Amino acid sequence: MKVFRVTALALILIAVHNLFFLQSASANQVGTGLSLYYKNDSAAWTTPPAAFTTSTCHTATNNINFNWGGGSPGGACNSDNFTVYGVGFILAPVTGDVNFCEQTDDQFYMKINSTFIINDATAKAAATGQSCNGTGTMPMVAGTSYSIEIWMHEQGGGADWRLLWSYPGQSSYVIVPVANLNATTLTAPDTTAPTFTSSSTFTAAENIATSATAATIQVSESATVTISSGADAARFNITRSETDTAIIKFNISPDFEAPADVGGNNVYEITLTATDAASNAGTQSITITVTDVVDTSSFNSLALAGSATTANFRTAVVITANVTVASKVTFRVNGKVLPRCKNKLATGSGSSFSVTCTWRPSNRGQVALTAAATPTGAGISSTAATPVSIMVGKRVGAR
């Protein structure tokens, strides 16, 4: 029999973690902008008005990057004397201090998590480039959504409204992108690949059934595990037993004496890939080593014709032996090999192989009939039959 030892050559998944890890939204996590509500409002203000979502002259969904010049911001809004209120969530780009910059003509206020970050009540022309009309800093955690409220008021003349940020890894101010702003909370995308928590090496005894488990694979999260490559990939199949567990089985029972692996050394090599719901994938190479199993043989039966327990002196009688594997059988009486009954080949199939011996008893009285079988196949142990007691009586008939 063959024993396979699977040695998993673990592929090291290298994750480079900077102190500040930039988060960007995945396909189903991209923001579409804040909810913006516009209303005509002639009064200048030193503190922002209450939040409003009705009695509007216009609504939109966007980030904060506008240059209306001397025109209307849209809808039925005036070209001067209007207020815009934006509300939603902002997704932190990094872990660390995030610096905000506003460029607004005229007034600007911003709260993040209900805390004023910028409070600029001055009527003025909008700054441009890397200059700011007002600034503020907020410590943030990468991938976390924070509530945000933002106001601007245009009194007269040109109208601009821009919100920019800088952060570790982004030294200059840039417009806060739409992807990081949304009307509802944003969740940072899953960018972590599954890892394999089970061993990378396994062993299996030869002749293991194709329905039996050769290796149990476990991963760190719910994932689909496949046999993606490897020299001996075609020798196996894989099924999922739990969300984070997979079972590997042989397609054909392995034989230690006849290795089927590419290397011919009973070490089978395959590579596995685990893919999670976000399409992150991790790989691991494993080995399954097939080990040798000492096969055994045994006698199914040893008997005289008709299962008789008596024989007659000098009278021929047929002995039949049946063994579980192809073997050469030697018959003995009282320990002595019977003439022409040494190393006789038993033939058959499955687990039934038979051979006969013709015996002419040369002793009277009680004798012990035995047989020994030596399998013709390699790696199978020899066996001896249970002795059969035979009573040999006088000859019957003429000499």
Overview of this protein structure:
It is built from no helices and 31 strands. It has strands at 4-7, 34-40, 58-62, 65-69, 82-91, 96-105, 107-112, 115-120, 134-140, 145-154, 159-167, 170-175, 181-182, 201-205, 215-218, 224-229, 236-242, 245-250, 267-275, 281-291, 299-304, 310-312, 317-323, 327-333, 336-337, 344-345, 347-349, 352-359, 365-375, 383-384, 388-393. Helices cover 0% and strands 48% of the residues. The protein folds into 3 domains: 4-14 and 192-291, Immunoglobulin-like; 34-182, Jelly Rolls, CATH 2.60.120; 299-393, Immunoglobulins (Immunoglobulin-like). Strand 27 and strand 28 (352-359) form a beta hairpin. It is rod-shaped, with a radius of gyration of 43 Å. The model is unreliable at 1-28 (pLDDT under 50).
List keywords for this structure.
399 residues; mainly beta; Immunoglobulin-like; Jelly Rolls; 3 domains; 7-stranded antiparallel β-sheet; 7-stranded mixed β-sheet; 48% strand; rod-shaped
How is the topology of this model organized?
Blueprint: E1 4-7, E2 34-40, E3 58-62, E4 65-69, E5 82-91, E6 96-105, E7 107-112, E8 115-120, E9 134-140, E10 145-154, E11 159-167, E12 170-175, E13 181-182, E14 201-205, E15 215-218, E16 224-229, E17 236-242, E18 245-250, E19 267-275, E20 281-291, E21 299-304, E22 310-312, E23 317-323, E24 327-333, E25 336-337, E26 344-345, E27 347-349, E28 352-359, E29 365-375, E30 383-384, E31 388-393
Parallel strand pairs: 14-20, 22-31
Antiparallel strand pairs: 1-14, 1-20, 2-3, 2-5, 4-11, 5-10, 5-13, 6-9, 6-11, 7-8, 7-10, 11-12, 15-18, 16-19, 17-18, 19-20, 21-23, 23-28, 24-25, 24-26, 24-29, 27-28, 29-30, 29-31
